[in-house]
Model the fold of this input.
Amino acid sequence: MTAALAFPTTGWAQAQTAPAKQAEKPEADEPTDEILVTGDRNNRYGTDVVQSGSFRNAKVLDVPLTISVIPSAVLKSQQAIDLIDAVRNTAGVSNTGTGTVAYNNLTIRGIAVDTRANFRLDGALNMLSATAFPLEDKDRIEVLKGASALYYGFSSPAGIVNLTMKRATPELYIAENTFFDSNGGMGGHVDVGDTVGPFGYRLNGVAAYLDTGVDMSKGHRYAAAGTFDLKPIDKLTLTADVEYFEKSIDEPALFLLTIPTGVKSVKIPDVKLLDPKVNIGGADWDANKTHELNLLGKAVYKFSGDWNVSAYWGRSRLSRKRNNPQFTPTNLTTSIDPTSPTYGAGRVQFSAQQAEFENINYAAELAGTIRMGNIRNEILVGVSRSIRSLSSSPNVRTQFTQNFATPRYIADPHLIYTPLPASSKVDDKGVYIFDRLSFNDVIQLLGGVRKSDYKNDGSINVATKTPYTAKPTSYSVGGVFKPVQWASLYGTYIEGLEETPAAPSTTDNATEVFAPTTSKQYEGGLKLQPKSDLLIQLAYFKIERGAAYSANLPGTTTLHYYTNGKQVYEGAEASLTGYVFPDLAIYATATILSARYRDNGAIAGNRVDGTPKNTWSLAGEYQPSWLDPDLRVTAGVYHTGTQAINADNVAFTSGYTTFDVGASYTLDLGGHEVVARVNGQNITNKRYWASVGGNSLAESLPATVKFSLGFKY
Done:
């Protein structure tokens, strides 16, 4: 895991305030078990510490992998609502395989982020992400790229997305924010925090009406969250997180193309001719409804100066009902030719399905430091268990004739959800040890090993009920060289473990369960931090993993799910984040990526679908203090390169670039701070394919202007 190569810190930290008082800043090269205060620091661009996994309170320069941290300053400045709004500031992150309004299926470096294994709350709880997370109760978002299985267990080698909750304030804090947009959406957010003696709390509530700007795509979302910190004695820290949220939104249909057997190239609809405000499905009843409850409790006991024992328990439960609208053109020649009399002809399919997801995970760790002169040996030993359950009903499919150019309204057929079957279960247990030797804080040698005990009960495969068990051992090694305190060179090798997805329902071997696979990651890079709020990162990476894809059986039109061969991802990344001048903060990132299939017959050498060849972004905030220190101006430009629509590479989407602008103004009203914000997203109303992969294409949303007015009491 990424965390496997970080030094083992001495406790579960939060990126917020201590329950009773502000924690003193640790020495520059020392880990700490105290809860670090970010306060004003986290209200600025840039960061110098990380909170994920065993990286808790690690300096960015000491983490031998690529990291992107999006602090609350960026979330507020850009008025981020959906996760993609935040992580688009990270190079190599894109959306794939789903529509754009219900939630985001992310890829990092072209690899899908597992919705059941790769999202973490406060570095611990394995959250379920087949829904949209609220961001109003989050303090920061971290994207740690690369294999994560050594620390967290079986997961995709894409990386970990860690969402850190807001925590108690040292004194009474009350804030309210009202927001609305040019489509008619509106809502409110209340944030309250305080510390009383040894006890601190933070409460957040959100209610919003949603209007995406697409015809008949409206809904609502609600969230209620609380974090609680207690320090009953000096050596013991207890924390708890509770978060509930729900969302209901009518989904526009996405395109699902049927590719004839043996075809080497096809045309796809011209997105420039499509109006992003038009709902090609023609339905206002196909809601995607989700609600999720997350619970997390942690305890840290510091029994000696440099040693502590810690434990956590967490549970994430998600319920979902959806109709999954998909439009399939009748003919990939005439149906997409605007001069044809049958332009736009096709069928729209609705697939009613309900599902229940649950993750329960817990862990216990012993961490400490042995000092021998200028040599520091940091050790972490732990045990963990993750139990993932899923119950998903068979799809109830209904088709209607439709035309994407001139869609007609389709009345509600009142689809009935089939009953939920018994839950399938994955049980992933592990024992791990990580060690970091630091020689005068100039040379650091890192290593880790994990022994796993994995079992998939196979019940998702209704035909065979074939279970799968494995007890693999995986390793990691790395090194960091710091010639000066503000620069580091690093290199790592990490072995990851991941579940192979079951065969999809569109294939002849649907629900078949496959053996887990091992991934290998190599990365080397340079990090420079000339000042605490400016970070430069350069990295080269190569990831090899088992391939899984759908293709026709030889000589037939039958779609089959294969798991043979490899996928190889190789590329380079660069980023510059923070304050280049006192009044100018920027987030600049770029990725160049080659992602191809290998050792798998006809598709060997093809590009992995849904994987951009390049992505880059440049966003910033300027405070013209010479004119008015209360004024801030923001702008951003975001680019995504070409993508293959499937593993056969029969067609590619064009690259696209979007532009944002915004501003905020802070004023004093009767002794209370008032902040007014406005942000325009995709101000040129660029039309592009926002989600690509697996023969599917999802349109971009219309241009939107967001407004908000916030008060602090």
Observations:
- The longest helix spans residues 72-77.
- The two ends are 43 Å apart (CA to CA).
- Helices lie at 72-77, 83-87, 149-152.
- The chain has a mean pLDDT of 88.
